[in-house]
Design brief:
With 278 residues, the protein is an alpha+beta fold. The protein folds into two domains: 121 residues, 3-Layer(aba) Sandwich (Rossmann fold); 138 residues, Sandwich (Tumour Suppressor Smad4). 17% of the residues lie in helices and 41% in strands. It is built from five helices and 16 strands. The strands form two sheets. Strands 6, 7, 8, 9, 10, 11, 12, 13, 14, 15 and 16 form an eleven-stranded antiparallel beta sheet that branches. A five-stranded parallel beta sheet has the order 2-1-3-4-5, sandwiched between helices. It is elongated. The structure holds NADP nicotinamide-adenine-dinucleotide phosphate (NAP) and manganese (II) ion. The site of manganese (II) ion (MN) has 4 residues, from loops.
Amino acid sequence: MTQMNITGRATRVAIISNNKYQSKRVASKLFATFKEDKDFYLSKKNPDIVISIGGDGMLLSAFHMYEKELDRVRFVGVHTGHLGFYTDYRDFEVDKLIENLRADKGEMISYPTLKVHITLEDGRIFTARAFNEATIKRIEKTMVADVIINKVKFERFRGDGLSVSTPTGSTAYNKSLGGAILHPTMEALQLTEISSINNRVYRTVGSSMIIPKKDHIEIVPKRQGVYTVSIDNKTMHYKNVVKVEYWIGSKTINFVATPFHTSFWERVKDAFIGDLDS
Ligand code: NAP
Ligand code: MN
């Protein structure tokens, strides 16, 4: 039986790996398997499936490599090390991955992504998409910014910065900032403070807030200067930012649905709690 995708040709597979010895071994095995197989075509260009080998950080890089092609690409993660959040297979489970890809019927699991617009004083607008989060910080002095949630001028923030996280990013930087863990199928953003100043004069809400899909977040810096904006693993510096807007994008990140998919709560436990004896 020849496995074809919906366009009637062999499934195009891109294999992306980090430089770890373990990852390269997994990549070679996949290369060798698919090279000999008429049902699959190895190509970094226009892939149907992207196999990311490494950790969650590697998957983050793979997402950004193909962020313009999210409509047609499905991702699969292989973790070399402990169980990752967005990596369904461990390195010793490659045979299982190959077997599942042969049986694949195109099913997917989709999670929301974050859309960001950065507007500068000279009128330029930079756009970005995040899989984990977007943060804005002011390094040289206290960041002073108005936080507007769905047109409501909510608070004047003073502190190091603010983070807006996707549900998938809730277990990453957001968690270190004291934010909640959200199941990745929830269509919501999380706004989390980075070291806010709270005293008799200055006031912020203090807790992180879960914002529904229909609501739009806007951060308006009140002082001129350089702002550091990070989108996942990339950091940019902008002078004179007028506003940064955030909302859940129309595009999702799609993963190959596998019978193997480990429960999200199992992953949370594995990452943060570990085994309990009693
Ligand atoms: P990194 O500093 O090399 O790794 C950050 C760590 O976060 C790695 O252990 C990575 O897991 C893990 N991670 C990434 N995405 C995750 C997710 N969605 N849920 C749970 N853990 C996750 O940086 P990187 O690999 O380039 O990743 C960039 C990310 O680092 C950012 O998106 C941000 O979330 C996070 N970050 C965290 C802090 C903090 O916690 N204080 C500060 C800055 C950035 P693997 O080992 O499996 O790759
Ligand atoms: Mn890891």
